[in-house]
Write a structure and sequence with these properties.
Strand order of the largest sheet: 4-6-7-3-5
Bound molecules: calcium ion
Radius of gyration: 22 Å
Structural class: mainly alpha
Number of helices: 19
Length: 394
């Protein structure tokens, strides 16, 4: 997982555990910071860089408040995509693809990731570089690394941020971004920045904040690192029949397109599928909602952000930039369960011995798999998407 904020907003953080939210810091920040400096120097960072970067850094109470007061809210794919795939974003993205055509071409040659995919992530992360955040990154990360809630996630990020200073990619003052430490036009965490960031404009520094070329090429490099295959599709909208074996529709079940075709799956406009490799049938809102074939490259997008809703939206937006038509919203309106109903469902599934992951009210992949098994046990269409019929039967 690369990012914190989207995941917090969309996917998987459990705030049911009050002990976590109420944890206490026993050490004062100054003492902690001094100890941390020694730890950082122990990783090979120079004492000069560490002291220059961290001297005078103070705790940012507003960051702790933001981290502790985030509400979990669950949006369906159609709700999230409806907000994010706007005509404004589509036309601005297209303009950027044209204006930077040569750059995108060079990036695709080098990393194999095409312009529509990169533009979709660029649009979702920062509105194409417009909104990158203004929090001092070292202060935010030091605050979150000190705080008792998730130090194990943020201490390594702070170390990576210090390496960015030592390597000359950023200065302590130039590193400003989102409140939880994401940086630049594609909102990289310092770990991703340090490990997969590249200098693509050739000035000798990896500047993922100010250099569009560096930021976009780094995103391509990260996707390639996650297994992106050049020249391969990532997502295609399809139409599903009224009835089929819905249990086959799961992300870990990639089948030849000829098999989906034999089951009655067609292109979105009803034309027969053109056999083209293997894909999973992705039903982000169950059998009545939109339907897609997700190819191996979709898994690389899921590693960018583990939320299926985010990944599906990014992949779909990329198909629009590549010329696909607006999506067909499915066969019927899909009823939405509230977060508390999903929590209730999760506890009932768990009580039946079906693992649901965190009981957070969010319909993640574990919950979908448990729902599918319960639907099979109860003789319901096993599309892995929960509804009131299932909740009542449980
Ligand atoms: Ca550069």
């Amino acid at each position: 997982m690369r990012q914190f904020t989207y995941v917090l907003l969309l996917a998987s953080v459990c705030y049911g555990s009050t002990a976590w939210a109420d944890c206490r810091n026993t050490q004062d920040f100054g003492t902690w910071l001094n100890n941390f400096k020694q730890e950082a120097i122990g990783t090979g960072l120079s004492a000069e860089v560490v002291n220059q970067a961290l001297d005078g850094v103070t705790l940012d109470q507003s960051v702790i408040q933001r981290d502790r007061s985030q509400e979990v809210f669950a949006q369906t794919f159609l709700e999230f995509a409806g907000k994010k795939v706007s005509s404004y974003r589509l036309s601005n993205g297209q303009k950027q693809m044209q204006a930077n055509a040569k750059l995108f071409q060079r990036i695709e040659q080098e990393y194999g990731v095409p312009a529509p995919m990169l533009t979709a992530l660029w649009a979702l992360e920062t509105d194409l570089g417009a909104v990158t955040g203004d929090y001092p990154t070292l202060r935010s990360l030091a605050t979150l690394a000190y705080d008792c809630r998730r130090p194990e996630r943020f201490r390594p990020e702070l170390i990576h941020a210090l390496w960015l200073v030592q390597k000359g990619d950023q200065t302590p003052a130039s590193m400003r971004g989102a409140w939880a430490g994401e940086l630049g036009q594609l909102q990289f965490l310092p770990s991703g920045y340090n490990q997969q960031g590249v200098d693509f404009d050739g000035d000798g520094h990896r500047d993922l904040i100010r250099s569009k070329a560096d930021a976009l090429a780094s995103a391509a490099n990260l996707l390639r690192h996650h297994g992106w295959q050049a020249g391969q599709p990532w997502l295609v909208e399809v139409k599903v029949p009224r009835e089929m074996d819905w249990s086959k529709a799961r992300l870990d079940n990639r089948l030849p397109l000829s098999e989906w075709s034999a089951m009655g799956v067609t292109e979105a406009d009803g034309d027969p599928l053109r056999p083209n490799g293997q894909a999973a049938l992705l039903l982000p809102m169950g059998r009545n909602g939109p339907a897609f074939l997700a190819f191996a490259n979709f898994d690389a997008i899921r590693q960018w952000n583990e939320s299926t809703v985010y990944a599906t939206t990014a992949a779909y937006l990329a198909t629009r930039f590549a010329g696909a038509k607006p999506l067909y919203a499915g066969n019927a309106p899909v009823q939405k369960l509230s977060i508390s109903q999903v929590r209730q469902l999760q506890s009932q599934l768990a009580a039946r011995g079906l693992p649901v992951g965190k009981m957070d009210g969010i319909i993640g992949e574990d919950t979908r798999n448990a729902v599918r098994q319960a639907q099979q046990q109860l003789g319901l269409p096993a599309d892995g998407y929960p509804d009131m019929v299932l909740l009542n039967k449980l």
